């Protein structure tokens, strides 16, 4: 019996049945249980920042689990503190850090922090995705995901993404927090107009509301910056991280600055596995490798190579390429992303149909120019197959 057959008889149907059972991986290449190789252009949905089995992560995790594993919240271990210090250094501002296990957990923490301002109203964006736990789902602006679980925690207003006027109208003196993604990843790799985050900062400051930026997908080098908002020079009150931070190990983080950093008091919030030394050791290895190997510049170069290569095809099915760094959306002129994903899979490339018209690329940050070129060489035939 295959792994997929076993999945269908033992796993809950919270996701659709996976199409491939993977057995191993190295760098940006994965191998399925039949031995077929694929260039991984999804990276575990932007999680595998250094690809698979990266020596730095393997060494860090091996050393830490061999030395000191879980310590609980009653004690502290150096990797946790060292990671918090490093994240604040990358942010370039003094603050405080909370560690959880995922992006949803990080956004839940941000949601709870906002309630400690004494206000309860929150503004989020339509199409935004902040997780599937009840609080994070309330922030998520995708009604189909929320509908089966109503009622969710209330007083969340969703406004059109990228529309400054709508944001300004929605934020009042009663608003506790505005939460936005610098790029909507799950929403279809949507990029807001230039200046949108700056406007959000000005609006929240004027109304005394916190500005939280969900960098779960865009953080840790994904766009060619440590954090995507740094490209616009904005200073949010809260930044949430996860996905690429652990390089494959589960970890989420909330960075808080100014008054937001002092909102939580002992006993108000916790996470049993949050700040686990092994996950923190992996995250330290990820960040140090990105810095030591100049991957931020590499991400910009390879991302631009992919963007220009796709645009240069001039294929009638392709409308545009949007995104930044190695978070790109190939926007199609027809709802054919599912079919294109299937054809590319057969050709040995893993991509994601994030929306009916959009194929998402979020490969490991170590994707080589040669691997990018191999995808560009295979794409025309895949597009022709879909449109024939």
TrEMBL record:
<keyword id="KW-0663">Pyridoxal phosphate</keyword>
<feature type="binding site">
    <location>
        <position position="129"/>
    </location>
    <ligand>
        <name>pyridoxal 5'-phosphate</name>
    </ligand>
</feature>
<comment type="pathway">
    <text>Amino-acid biosynthesis; L-arginine biosynthesis; N(2)-acetyl-L-ornithine from L-glutamate: step 4/4.</text>
</comment>
<dbReference type="InterPro" id="IPR005814">
    <property type="entry name" value="Aminotrans_3"/>
</dbReference>
<feature type="binding site">
    <location>
        <position position="272"/>
    </location>
    <ligand>
        <name>pyridoxal 5'-phosphate</name>
    </ligand>
</feature>
<feature type="binding site">
    <location>
        <position position="271"/>
    </location>
    <ligand>
        <name>N(2)-acetyl-L-ornithine</name>
    </ligand>
</feature>
<keyword id="KW-0032">Aminotransferase</keyword>
<dbReference type="InterPro" id="IPR004636">
    <property type="entry name" value="AcOrn/SuccOrn_fam"/>
</dbReference>
<feature type="binding site">
    <location>
        <begin position="214"/>
        <end position="217"/>
    </location>
    <ligand>
        <name>pyridoxal 5'-phosphate</name>
    </ligand>
</feature>
<comment type="similarity">
    <text>Belongs to the class-III pyridoxal-phosphate-dependent aminotransferase family. ArgD subfamily.</text>
</comment>
<keyword id="KW-0055">Arginine biosynthesis</keyword>
<keyword id="KW-0808">Transferase</keyword>
<feature type="binding site">
    <location>
        <position position="132"/>
    </location>
    <ligand>
        <name>N(2)-acetyl-L-ornithine</name>
    </ligand>
</feature>
<dbReference type="InterPro" id="IPR015424">
    <property type="entry name" value="PyrdxlP-dep_Trfase"/>
</dbReference>
<dbReference type="InterPro" id="IPR015421">
    <property type="entry name" value="PyrdxlP-dep_Trfase_major"/>
</dbReference>
<feature type="modified residue" description="N6-(pyridoxal phosphate)lysine">
    <location>
        <position position="243"/>
    </location>
</feature>
<comment type="subunit">
    <text>Homodimer.</text>
</comment>
<dbReference type="InterPro" id="IPR050103">
    <property type="entry name" value="Class-III_PLP-dep_AT"/>
</dbReference>
<keyword id="KW-0963">Cytoplasm</keyword>
<feature type="binding site">
    <location>
        <begin position="103"/>
        <end position="104"/>
    </location>
    <ligand>
        <name>pyridoxal 5'-phosphate</name>
    </ligand>
</feature>
<dbReference type="InterPro" id="IPR015422">
    <property type="entry name" value="PyrdxlP-dep_Trfase_small"/>
</dbReference>
<protein>
    <recommendedName>
        <fullName>Acetylornithine aminotransferase</fullName>
        <ecNumber>2.6.1.11</ecNumber>
    </recommendedName>
</protein>
<dbReference type="InterPro" id="IPR049704">
    <property type="entry name" value="Aminotrans_3_PPA_site"/>
</dbReference>
<dbReference type="GO" id="GO:0003992">
    <property type="term" value="F:N2-acetyl-L-ornithine:2-oxoglutarate 5-aminotransferase activity"/>
</dbReference>
<dbReference type="Pfam" id="PF00202">
    <property type="entry name" value="Aminotran_3"/>
</dbReference>
<keyword id="KW-0028">Amino-acid biosynthesis</keyword>
